[in-house]
Write a structure and sequence with these properties.
InterPro entries: Beta-lactam/transpept-like, Glyco_trans_51, Glycosyltr_51/Transpeptidase, Lysozyme-like_dom_sf, PBP_transglycosylase, PCN-bd_Tpept
Pfam families: Transgly (PF00912), Transpeptidase (PF00905)
Family: In the C-terminal section; belongs to the transpeptidase family. In the N-terminal section; belongs to the glycosyltransferase 51 family.
Largest sheet: 5 strands, mixed
CATH superfamily of one domain: DD-peptidase/beta-lactamase superfamily
CATH architecture of one domain: 3-Layer(aba) Sandwich
Keywords: Carboxypeptidase, Cell shape, Cell wall biogenesis/degradation, Glycosyltransferase, Hydrolase, Multifunctional enzyme, Peptidoglycan synthesis, Protease, Transferase
Protein name: Membrane carboxypeptidase (Penicillin-binding protein)
Strand order of the largest sheet: 2-1-6-16-17
Amino acid sequence: MTVKSATEELHLLPEELSEPPLAEKTTLLDADGKQFAQFYYENRESVTLDQVADIMKTAIVSIEDFRFYEHGAIDLEGTFRAAVKNTTGGGGIQGGSSITQQYVKQVLVNSAETKEEQRAAIAPTFSRKLNELRYAMAIEEKYTKPEILERYLNISYFGAGAHGIQAASKRFFGKPAAKLNLWEAATLAGAVQNPSGTDPNAGKASRQRLLDRRNTVLDRMKELGKITEQEAAEAKAKKLGFKDTPVPGGCDESAYPYFCLYAQYEMLNNEQFGKTASLRKKQLQRGGLTIKTTLDLQAQKASEKAIKAYVKASDHPVAAQAMVVPGTGAIKAMAASRKFGQNKKKNEMSYNLAADVMHGGGAGFQAGSTFKPFTLLTALDQGMKLNDGNTTGAGYRAPSLSSFRDCEGNRVGDPNHEVRNSSEGGGGFKSLTTGTLNSVNTFFLKLEEKVGLCEVVKTAKKLGIKRADGAKLKEFETFTLGINEMDPVTVSAAYATIAARGTYCKPMAITEIRDRNGKATPYKPKCSQVLDEEVADAATHIMSRVFTDGTMQEVGGIGRPAAGKTGTTDGYTAAWFAGFTPDLASAVSLGDPRGAFKHDLVGVTIGGRYYGYVYGASISGRIWKSSMLGALKGIDPSSFTPVNMSRFGGCSGLCAPPPTRKPGTTDGHGPGNDDGNVVITGDGNGGFMNEGDIGDNSIPVVP
């Protein structure tokens, strides 16, 4: 009579409940579909009811709502009995809610965006209970009993950071929910009532409470005739069996943290993955996405192995590498010599030195002579031929204040200060070929003067060049000598453009995102033709000789068509090598993140070896060679497109006989050595340029 009267007087009618999607973990896969990282706000992995062991279903229904399959839309008798008991203060808090009502409460708690809403969702009041009843009536009309049970098992929290039956089963017992046995099922069924009080990670007392609760479930199952007395006794004799299976989350726990970090920031910062930053973050942490990436384990392991062979994790200087596919921009590998983490005592690194700031990286290192090919490309595009060149001395001064102008028309050439060669020695005639192979500073300054500083900057930008710290490129006359701080991903993508005959492709790490419902969204390369194909071929022709006649001849090639350029910065503050084959491009940087200007690569021990001076070929070039050999193993060699000699052969009046040299040497530039930009010139406006580095990018350079 009480139930009938209450239903009529309180106008208990069904009320539709909003059921937002549950927070699900997001998984990162490599190119072959193997998981290497995951992100989650809640550790949850939703499953269908047929993926849950029958004994688990029996256990949870026995202890939480044994009349679940028998009562109607709501079990009003049990509900009001518990509500009266709780609100009148007659002892401890009593349950009495049906599984349907518990599901409703969980939905309301999960939907709450404020603490006030969360408190309201669990408040022990009649009004909250009445709302639950209205929602529960609608849920019972909307779903079948098995569907309600499935949703309840997926939304429930079991403790130890495990949300949902599948995550709990794996976390507690290291197995999927489909394989739970009697005592394991009873343990998880018991944990639902008070997951905080029975959390096995909370200590011995909490584990004992969970064990007691498990035995209570077993007794209830025996009482209801679901199991025999012997089965209950045997199950109660078992130990708790909590395995505390680790649930790695975030890039810290990933086997490939630097690639993971890049993909994470790409997801967070790129609008193609969501209109707003908050939406993208929510999707990453809660969306239950499966993100397929471009990570190639063969290339990744080859990079890690090569770096480890030449640079120790305990060294102050750090080597970093990225590998990019020409024609697609797919990033195949990303690695650094230090372990990723927050522990400074262990020399761990908390940012991605292989990437720019927008992808979790730092401010980068000056790229040195890896920038010279941009001037070379500009000269070839303006009609110069392979044997065209210029004659310079051992030093170079801008002829006048107007010799160099940046892209805003500002004068930056300062004739009062001089840039000198390093180990190239004196001047003389250098062609585009010999000047590049020997990496002659003065030659490239004069070449840049001829073709135009702004034109060189424009060429670099076409190839995706931008500073690692996101600031505007420094457009001084020493631009060609690599005064801008860069990251390996950006440099790799630029060199991949040359390999792809002038097709620039934006670096990409994500190829597909599949939502929680299995709907897949593919992401294609974003490419455009930015260089004349034959100009790229001509530059490749010159750069391919760096292994036989240039600054990498001491290291040698990789047994297949390849091209590249060493890069050593002013004062040996950083060392680079960037190179490519038709199938893969890569760049390796080396510098000290404490501040490359203050901590140069002179008189240093790296990887257990002492170096008086570290050149581009010394370590970076060797890492590049070793890693590329491993990354390309089993892949048939591809050939470069031959240079069009009818267009680029000979000279156009700017040539002279190449300087003679002895076999096995280069023009005054010892094998394995690269240049050094000895003096940084002024800005033409009374000030001096700052070289800058990752640790201190504001130290003025005094001429």
